[in-house]
Structures are given as C-alpha cells and as structure tokens.
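Section handout, structural biology tutorial.
Before the tutorial, make sure you can parse a SMILES string by hand: atoms, branches in parentheses, ring closures as digits. In the record below the ligand is adenosine-5'-diphosphate, and the chain has 204 residues. In the tutorial you will relate the predicted structure tokens back to the input. Do not try to memorize them.
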Amino acid sequence: MTESVVELKNVSKRYKDTVVFENLNISVKKGEFVGIMGPSGCGKSTTLHIIGGIDNPTEGEVYIMGVKHTDEKKIAKLRRKYISFIFQFYYLLEDFNVLENVALFGDMKKSLELLKFLRLEHRLHHKPYELSGGEQQRVAIARALVREPQILIADEPTGNLDYKESKKIFSLLKSLNKESNITIIVATHNEELKPFFDRIIYLG
Ligand SMILES: Nc1ncnc2c1ncn2[C@@H]1O[C@H](COP(=O)(O)OP(=O)(O)O)[C@@H](O)[C@H]1O
Ligand SMILES: [Mg+2]
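Predicted structure of the complex:
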C-alpha cells in the first residue's frame, strides 16, 4: 500500500463572510505530481497553505506525513525538514544577493548548479530588486529545490514566465519527481501545463 503524504478530510475554510470551500477531501500519495486548478479566487492558494501547514482549516482534519495539523510542534518540524514552498510572490530576502538567497538554504555546489540550470549565473551577485519578475521567480524555484524537500508545494510557480521557460521548469520538476520520488503539488491556471501532471484536482 502506498502511503498518503497529504490528507485533507472534510476541510472547510471560511473568513468572516467568505466561504472559500466546504468539505474538501484531498489525498496525495508519496511520489505523486498533482495539479490544483480552478478559476482565480477558488481557493488554490488557501488549499496549498493548508497542505503546507502554514494555514489552518476552519473545520476538518489535515494530516501531513501522518501528523495531524493540530500537533503544531511536529508540523513545524516537518515543515522545516521536508517541505519546500514556492510562493506566488517569491518572498526573497531583499538584503541578500541571488546566490545567498539560495545557498542560505542548502549546499553551495548544488545552489550554483540550480542557478546555472535556471539561467541565472550572470545574476549571482545581484539583489532581488535588480531582477525582473521572471528572474525572481527562478531564484525562488532554486531556493525551494536546493533544500531537497520530500514535498514540494508550488503556487503558480511559472506565473511570470513564458511557455518555453515554464515547460523547462516543469520538466525539471518532473525529473525530480521521477528520480527522487518527491511529491509535488502545484497550483496553476495554465492549461498548457496539464500534460505534466499525474492527476489534476479541480477546485471551484
Ligand atoms: N485573509 C483573508 N481574508 C478574507 N478573505 C480571504 C483571505 N485570504 C483569501 N481570502 C479569500 O478566499 C478566496 C480564495 O483565495 P485564494 O486561495 O487566494 O484563491 P486562488 O489562489 O484560487 O486565487 C478568495 O475569495 C479570497 O478573497
Ligand atoms: Mg492564488
């Protein structure tokens, strides 16, 4: 039997007068490459935040690698050790250059390899504000991957990249998924990237 690394059971999320979703059930097995799709505002980011243990459901239960979301200490530890996030808005460290933004989270040699693959070798000593949106996005991708996570969660990771670049990054994710059995969960609204996923979860 393949274990579920992520399990959402009857999860609801509400803000004061907004119901984001109700009774959402999601189960992701180890090594799956899953897409989360749906129109803007349907709750993709919220779902990823709940899956990654950085937001809590209003109702329902969440299990990440078998740990229940209410066990905050254990979830925090899992997050540090095994989970990487690529955020929609990058959140790079503004006072650090490109190489530092990546190497602070992992091995130097691997940082350089990833940055080279992502065509950023000529930007290693630039600060985030000196980069284009697409370049910042690629730094955020390198930072997430250098940690060699077991679970990679990505929120519109190619939202600022053209199709050719997006395809290249998705091919890299796919090879990591196949070679290292990393579980990958990606929110995207890009229909062209659908063929990369093992399975798509539609919201909204
Ligand atoms: N902090 C918040 N307070 C109130 N409403 C929120 C908050 N965060 C998200 N929402 C609402 O939840 C819904 C889902 O948002 P989100 O998960 O960002 O959707 P998506 O990523 O699919 O575009 C939206 O209607 C949004 O306005
Ligand atoms: Mg979103």
